[in-house]
Design brief:
Length: 145
Amino acid sequence: MTRIWILPILLVLCGSLVATGLILSGSPGEAAALLMMFSLLAAVNSPLVFPRSIDALEARRRSATDGRPVVYWRPGCTYCLRLRVRLGRSARRLYWVNIWRDPAGAAAVREANGGDETVPTVVVAGRPHTNPDPEWVRGQLPPSA
């Protein structure tokens, strides 16, 4: 659990150190802007933005049971972030697999994309779709009970 917070914490700490240096050199405006940028990067890479990831095998098993799509993603990917943000609350109804934490997930993405780790790769009913439109993904969700 704590490993997923390492990058966001490091980003905030680095931003704080650089901002402190800028404040001491007499540039408080630049320091505030830089600290805000580092904080935004930390938030985007935090587990608060993306739903909790599960491993690829569990995601496939659950998807086969209830028909929900599986999204293969990685931290720092702007297209993954775009998909997550545009899906809004619907994103929690998908199964998210972080390919940097799950070798089986990374292998599934390479298999679907001719050897490339192109994300987001969304698997719906066993068929992969690379970087699909978020509205299309929302339309693939089974009706909520």
